[in-house]
């Protein structure tokens, strides 16, 4: 009997990536919600280098870092592959997954946490990244083709949470007018059943983020809680 | 495979390009190599093959471009399976990918912070580099290589970065072997390997390159 556990934090898109992959493969797992202000001894034991979620525990063995976990899941459970079989196409998928992870997510995240002075510059950077992504999507339904693959999974933040948060904060970064293809992709993505199964309720998501930031200082305790998990936007990189 | 089917766009001092060269050498794959003029003007082929980052290395296999060195090493391992660079089991492969990702996220930038800064910032950067190497020593354990008895994926990802250590030591005034003897022993072991020894640039030349970069950045 396989024992699969996932240590996660409900807001984390990195954790969501793992959940989506497990759902695609139809794997039963136990989900353990971590309190990031008071991390469990197990989490610290299983991820001593980063001390972060997600951590996947498979028959007692820990795997950490969401993209490493996705590859592990794909190699361990062969049904419904999330990476292409052809090495060149696989290399392309890994490249784009990295682009989303290293370039798109931080840029979008920065727009949420911008002061009013920083917003336009951060928005410009995010728009640039989204443009590149929209070009890559082209006419495809998903980045993975007809069904969602690794790139779609890693882009889950763009596909769901970011649109919810930006609407609540009245940001205008990712719009249907600016990015029609990506917008349609997001609609299709959020409606896929492996994704729908693990999306947080919209009202809970909105309540978790600070009210409209413009001209207001950030709620410091909230920010410090998130800083435990995510890298905060650097002042100027 | 004909030599012209595999082309590497390269820059001599880049440890990321060295990763690809070592992997190809380990697999016995013949390839062509084209040096890029990083400062003078990148070639059209490079800009076309890697429009997003415009960086080396780029590997073109039958004209199809691949970018990002760790990605390329993965591709090489999958396309020419013998001898394998990644371990056999999914769990061991996940461990290898973890360490490769850790090295990618931390090591080169930490080293860069040593030669780019002075005073307190430099002291902090040194401390960070030593901590990173100690984590890597933990990953190595008592094994000869990161994957066990055989030279493999993580070793290939890590070893080229060590050619820059001589420069870090010079500008940071410290010694890696004193601080991390196990890591230093692993480095020597890898340097004894033909694919590594024939590929890596001389650390003295890397030091000269870094000195030039310091002048360019207006440091000292």
UniProtKB/TrEMBL annotation, chain A:
Q: Which reaction does it catalyse?
A: RX + glutathione = an S-substituted glutathione + a halide anion + H(+)
Q: Which residues form the GST C-terminal domain?
A: 86-214
BP GO annotations: glutathione metabolic process
Which InterPro entries does the record match to this protein?
Glutathione-S-Trfase_C-like, Glutathione-S-Trfase_C_sf, Glutathione_S-Trfase, Glutathione_S-Trfase_N, GST_C, GST_C_Tau, Omega/Tau-like, Thioredoxin-like_sf
Query: Which keywords, in A-to-Z order, does the entry hold?
Result: Transferase
Keyword Transferase on entry: yes
Top EC category: transferase
What SUPFAM superfamilies does the entry give? GST C-terminal domain-like, Thioredoxin-like
Which GO MF terms does the UniProt record name? glutathione transferase activity
Annotated EC: 2.5.1.18
UniProt family annotation:
Belongs to the GST superfamily. HSP26 family.
Alphabetized PANTHER family for the sequence: GLUTATHIONE S-TRANSFERASE U8, GLUTATHIONE S-TRANSFERASE, GST, SUPERFAMILY, GST DOMAIN CONTAINING
Q: State what protein this is by name.
A: Probable glutathione S-transferase
- Lineage of origin: Eukaryota, Viridiplantae, Streptophyta, Embryophyta, Tracheophyta
TrEMBL record, chain B:
Q: Look up the EC number in the record and give it.
A: 2.5.1.18
> Which top-rank group of organisms is this from?
Eukaryota
Choose any GO biological process term that the UniProt entry carries and state it.
Answer: glutathione metabolic process
Listed Pfam families: GST_C, GST_N_3
**InterPro entries registered for this protein in UniProt:** Glutathione-S-Trfase_C-like, Glutathione-S-Trfase_C_sf, Glutathione_S-Trfase, Glutathione_S-Trfase_N, GST_C, GST_C_Tau, Omega/Tau-like, Thioredoxin-like_sf
- Which reaction equations make up its catalytic activity? RX + glutathione = an S-substituted glutathione + a halide anion + H(+)
UniProt keyword Metal-binding, yes or no: no
EC top class, as a word: transferase
Residue ranges of domain GST C-terminal in the record: 89-209
Where is each GST N-terminal domain found? 4-84
**Record-level GO cellular component terms:** cytoplasm
**Record key words, sorted:** Transferase
Which organism does this sequence originate in?
Answer: Coffea canephora (Robusta coffee)
Cell cycle among keywords: no
Q: What is the name listed in the Swiss-Prot or TrEMBL entry for this protein?
A: glutathione transferase
A GO molecular function held by the record: glutathione transferase activity
What PROSITE patterns does this protein map onto? Answer: GST_CTER (PS50405), GST_NTER (PS50404)
Q: Which residues form a coiled coil?
A: none
Q: Which Gene3D superfamilies match?
A: 1.20.1050.10, Glutaredoxin (3.40.30.10)
